[in-house]
Amino acid sequence: MTTLTIGATIGDPDIAVELDARRFNRHTFWVGQSGSGKTYALGVVLEQLLLNTELPMLILDPNGDYTRMRETLPSATAADAERLAEADIRVFRSGSAEGERLHVRYTDLPAATKAAVMQMDPIADAEEYNVLLHGDPDARTFDAQEMLAELRGSGDPDQRRLANRMENLQILDWDLWSRGQASVVDTIDERPRATVLDLGGFTHPAEPKVAALAVLEHLWAHREERRPVLIVIDEAHNLCPPNPQTAVERALVAQLVQIAAEGRKFGLWLLLSTQRPTKIHPNVLSQCDNLALMRVNAPRDLAELADVFGFAPEASIRRSAEFRQGQALFAGGFIAEPTFVQMGERLTQEAGGDVTVPLRVDAAG
Ligand SMILES: Nc1ncnc2c1ncn2[C@@H]1O[C@H](COP(=O)(O)OP(=O)(O)OP(=O)(O)O)[C@@H](O)[C@H]1O
Ligand SMILES: [Mg+2]
């Protein structure tokens, strides 16, 4: 059995706590209030998965927190540092951050997704939608201004309407589009050990969601290949809310619900992290067989967790209200029995981390 050492028992630092790596073939829910240490602790588990398994991971990273996983800290042993440095970790950035760009091909998107991006209804906007369906531009030679001029010059009111829609929604300006360059799905298809998608730097609020949707739909479309991947989503409430508002959000949640319900047997395994259980769609939550619970104070959230995760004793769940930073309850398939854990130290560099209050020099300390 391959085990991942993630920390020590609370109260006895000599007793190491181990997770069963094989059980990441289920969906995992990770929860704790802001500052409880989720992002840090999740990093500890991802490092152990990198070191002890061959499981490819796709990390949807809303704040660029996992962009430095190749850089080890002095706390890592020489052997671990070497293995982590050699691991095939690809990082794709958004915004002004340096590094390879996070791109997807507009032309790869299914018609329904293009319509969602364009906030278009296939029936109510039937004519415009039809222009969209038949007008796929060649990404290599694509020129936005040229296309708008062509649509407007056609004399066809539906083409003019589509041009106005594209311009008004500013979709042609998105940094997300590959414009003839490679798409991140090309890399994901190679199944590197980790592919980190930094979703935090985009300008338009829909861009990170469309990026996630494009990648998840691609994985789903190729599910029959049965090539395993652990899909890690930090701050998952951004991508999987219970009440999606826009067409893109609805498509994204529908895709995640489908993966939660049917992805397991195809090797599409979710690991979702968030602050409150009610911030995640209930049909995704109810499919999670592994639980990592950090500090949660709100009695209503504790009651909800006890209700959904019957495999974790209610008294243990309630104890999480007293957790300090870095303490957690692990329960479910990936651990022999529900266990209180003091998480171990990270081996790689955290890229995010908290901002500290600026203090006066003479008052510091
Ligand atoms: N076990 C730990 N050891 C040392 N520092 C830690 C530990 N856990 C968390 N921290 C530090 O505490 C701060 C907050 O932790 P973290 O970002 O993991 O919280 P979070 O639960 O993800 O919060 P949020 O929900 O707001 O994202 C970070 O600066 C992190 O470096
Ligand atoms: Mg966090």
How does this structure look, described?
The chain has 365 residues and is an alpha/beta fold. The protein is built from twelve helices and eleven strands. The protein has helices at 38-52, 78-86, 111-117, 126-134, 144-153, 157-169, 184-188, 207-221, 247-262, 282-285, 299-308, 314-319, and strands spanning 3-9, 12-20, 27-31, 57-61, 89-92, 194-198, 229-233, 268-274, 288-293, 327-332, 339-343. α4 (126-134) crosses α6 and α5 (144-153) packs antiparallel against α6 (157-169). It is globular. Residues 38-39, 234 line the site of magnesium ion. Adenosine-5'-triphosphate is lined by residues 32, 34-40, 275, 325-326, 343, 350, 353-354.
Low-confidence stretches: none
Largest sheet: 11 strands, mixed
CATH topology of the largest domain: Rossmann fold
Which CATH class of the largest domain applies here?
A: Alpha Beta
Overall pLDDT metric:
94
Question: Which tags fit this structure?
Answer:
365 residues, binds adenosine-5'-triphosphate, 2 domains, Rossmann fold, globular, binds magnesium ion, single chain, eleven-stranded mixed sheet, alpha/beta
